[in-house]
Fold this sequence. Notes:
Bound molecules: iron/sulfur cluster
Family (chain A): Belongs to the binding-protein-dependent transport system permease family.
Membrane topology (chain A): Multi-pass membrane protein
CATH class of the largest domain in chain A: Mainly Alpha
Keywords (chain A): Cell membrane, Membrane, Transmembrane, Transmembrane helix, Transport
Oligomer: heterodimer
Strand order of the largest sheet of chain B: 6-7-8-3-9-10-12-11
GO biological process, one term (chain A): transmembrane transport
Organism (chain A): Actinocrinis puniceicyclus
Low-confidence stretches of chain B: 1-11, 282-293, 298-306, 569-577
CATH superfamily of the largest domain in chain A: MetI-like
Amino acid sequence: MGRLIFHRAAMSIPLLLIVSLIIFGLEAIVPGDAASTILGQNATPQSVAALRGQLGLNDPWVVRFGHWLGGALHGDLGTSIISGVDVTSSLNGRLAVTLSLLVPTILLSAVAGVALGFASAVRGGALGRFIDVVSLFGFALPSFWVALILVGFFAVHLNLLPATGYQDLAASPAGWLKSIILPVLALSLQGITYVAKQTRDTVMEVLETDYVKFLRANGVPERSVRYRHVLRNAAIPVVTSLGLVSVGMLSGAVFIENVFVLPGLGSLATQATLDHDIPVILGVGVFFTLCVIAINLLIDFAYGLLNPKVRVS
Amino acid sequence: MTTATDVPVRRRGVLRAVLATARGRITAGFLLLLFACCLLAPVIAPADPLHQNLQEILRTPSGAHWLGTDSLGRDVLSRLLYGGRSSIVGILEGVAAQLVVAVPLGVATGYLGGRFDRFVMRLADIVMSVPVIVILLAILAIFDHSIAAAMITLGVLGASGMMRIIRGTAMTVRQELYVSAAELLGLSRTQIIFRHILPRCRGVIIVQTSLFAALAIGIQTGLTFLGLGPPPPAATWGGMVNEAATTLSTQPWLLAPSGGLIALTVLALGVLGDTVRDVTAQNHTSSGGLRVKPARRRPDVAQAPVPEGTALLSVRDLSVSFLTPRGEVEVLTGVGFDLDAGQTLGLVGESGSGKSVTARAVLGLLEANGAVTGGSVIFDGRDLTRATRRQLAALRGTRIALISQEPMVALDPSFRIGSQLSEIVRSHARLSREAARRRVLELMEMVELPDPEEMAKRYPFQISGGMAQRVAIAAALAGSPDLLIADEPTTALDVTVQADVLALLRRLQRETGMAVLLVTHDWGVVADICTHVAVMYAGQVVEQAPVEQVFGAPAHPYTAALMASSPEKAPRRTPIDAIAGAVPPPGAHPDGCRFRDRCALSAAECADDDIPLVRLNEERVSRCIRTELLQAQP
Ligand code: SF4
């Protein structure tokens, strides 16, 4: 158990390095840089050159990367080349929004996905076929499109929930809840259906194992077979698939935040992309990578708890 | 034996097999049609995708505009066709990048192995966790909204999944005999890679490619939806969804064509991938999605009159069918035997003879796709094939218990041994936790497990196969059953442990007086423990008799052959030395005697009719019409 967690934690350092290196390295080899971006197309070569010197862009990229890395280790991710605002603090302000979207989505996907998948596996029949079909649609429907349909129905047509915007949890819990319901639903569709499908397949496999036959054959009540033994053993692969889908949700979150105009990391990154604001994108990269690391650690932890082979050794 | 010449056949086979399925034809057809329409957009599009007509904005579908017009009066269908071009190009770029990275790396790591392999795999592990979206956004910022650059990056970052699978295949191929042979024959590595490894990965590559393409469409449309692709007047699918969003309250219809087409495309790619996976999967096992049962006989609470007879278990004319991809297949035909209290009946036969299915059918625990289609299983005066689920459940463990072939997989891997035993004990009798614990220890002592206290705390993976089988026996004995069904209880164990477990079973049987139905293919086990034998072949009982009679002189050529094929166990050499051929698969039996093709004594008359069971004496039957010839053999 300890070793598993340690291994994952040790992997997070090269992961962070790789993410920032890819972004940094690409920027360095492509012509056109922050100075000309800031000054726009009408800038004179002299003013661009002056600003380059000021920003330290004339240094070799290794030096600049070292400089950025040194700052990052102290929690300083530089400043936005557009607004001049400190990247770390603007990201910190937006993290809560993104987590407000991600955490409920992951929880909903886990609970609803496992419940649906489990029910369809033990019941089979129509419910099972329904899950098979719905999971295909969950996979196929683009989340931003689903989001727009939800907005069209619940916000525009029924006028039940706000179409856009975000309310702070501390300021107004009810407002917060209203503002995240549709985004969470739109983002969960894929997660729920994916987890449901994985759960269904795993549970059906476990139901056919020798130990389930053995327990049944020797008189263990069906209720215990299902809810104690099958659920417990199916949980191990399901938890792994939940981790995969959670990491994938980061992409979905970027689209969803834009649809609902949520001031989170994803919408910030999108704006930064339109502005060619590399320091901000780098910062979001670091934050997202930390999210991935956190998700993976949680999943490993759950995996270790569920799997006695890991727990005992 | 697979040889190089088989490969092209199999290769054409994938395509043909995919197109043989309805979903394969529909999805492949749809994708081809879409591809062709987008490619030919300049020729077939009804209008210029950029032509605005402010007189005709936000129209619903009509003859002039099949899919309506957008907020600038542009023809939606034409814009979809032109927009599709950029999506298709995006997919192709991504797929190409993925293939260029995954195929060579997968083959190289799998085939070369060693330090290179470890390094690449470690790197791939890390890359799997990279939050791809941020990298894509950075690429779009750096490369000035070039969707091509983003898609290529997506392909590279997404290559690890495909690489892993190709690596696995390459490793298998390398280990296989025919490649070693090829190496000896002097084929170069390149030849091995191109003639043996890549053709084998074909199915996997198609599956991964179509799943990746589905993902790529999602990302490509997402990015263009965010306005990060080609700037406005240009038509893109994602951009059209975005435009539709601005008129959501006035003309919601506009969401339908763009989003619907994206969804259909992703769906088609996903289903196509699944179809290829299904047709290339090596084994269509029970998890293959076939969940329908053959018509099972209705449980009948008002019991039919039970035939006279005193046997504890009396199986009569039992037939069982399984529903397979090829249709309903009968695996047991009219199986019958009797078992009295205190007796041990050995069900003997090669694998495929139906002996294990018989045992499971008695317990009412057939696989999900199997069902009893005829006959009866009379246990203690009650027909179990007509019992309800609940009635059956009440019998299990208390009246009939089971130990199975693979003790290591018969115990739930997630629970401690003590906890599993205790649960079984408590499902038979209402006991306090403490009383259950004492009973568990008692049972563990009964099956001669050393150090029960300590053993109870272990997980199944922490004990040996022999120990696990003892635990399983303890579990089975927990409800003091009258009948124990033992499915190959010693086959998976070490030879030294086998004898101990058999001795234990014999002792327990003597002490408890239970009947044992023992499934085995091992005459040594039969000689050791059984009082009676029922020999099964191709879903039928071909001989049943007390054990001394069978060992004295087999009364069916199959029994004789089976004994001869394990000479050290059989007490007497019989005319047939080994049985050539194999048990015919269910549904493919020859007419007449099912053993005819492999029988040394077969004659023309054996093919005429189904062979009935012939009664040879009070206790003995045989399904052979020429037994006297066998008896006459020296
Ligand atoms: S009936 Fe004929 S073919 Fe069948 S076992 Fe007897 S001799 Fe052989």
